[in-house]
Write a structure and sequence with these properties.
Blueprint: H1 2-25, H2 27-45, H3 50-80, H4 86-116, H5 119-129, H6 131-149
């Protein structure tokens, strides 16, 4: 039993190490994570119901997972290729296309949720009525930009 627990713990450590590696080295992963944070904050400000919030969280999980898989494919391809290889390029392009498809559908779902029943107007109303919301947004943008472009 102890051996099984140790193996499970090691599996989680490997997974966590993979997320940290991607976080440190992949700007696009940080962009998706930042976008997910802003959309989650907007969803909370808009008072989206639990089902819509759960769907958004599922979108974020799929999007971030696609980015992780794309990174894994790219690294394996880069490791194996000694020079230009058409199949390696196609594999990397297809993995990147998977990320684009996920991103497109995340944007469509987010647009439906925020534009359909006035959620975007509720978020805008919070910013127009409460100066604290404007200050938090203004303060968060430089931090988000640092996270995306400078974080290591």
């Amino acid at each position: 039993m102890n051996r099984e627990i140790r193996k499970l713990r090691q599996s989680f450590q490997c997974a966590f190490r993979g997320v940290v590696s991607c976080l440190r080295t992949e700007r696009n992963f940080r962009i998706h994570l930042t976008a997910a944070s802003y959309v989650t904050a907007a969803a909370l400000l808009a008072r989206l119901d639990a089902v819509r919030l759960a769907v958004l969280l599922l979108c974020f999980a799929v999007m971030l997972s696609a980015e992780l898989m794309n990174t894994a494919v790219e690294r394996l391809c880069d490791r194996q290729a000694t020079g230009y290889d058409k199949l390696v390029r196609e594999a990397k392009d297809i993995a990147a296309a998977a990320v684009v498809v996920c991103a497109l559908f995340c944007v469509l779902i987010g647009a439906l949720f925020f534009l359909w029943e006035g959620a975007a107007c509720r978020v805008l109303g919070v910013f127009l009525l409460h100066s604290w919301a404007k200050w938090i947004l203004l303060a968060s943008v430089p931090a988000a930009l640092w996270f995306i472009f400078r974080f290591r």
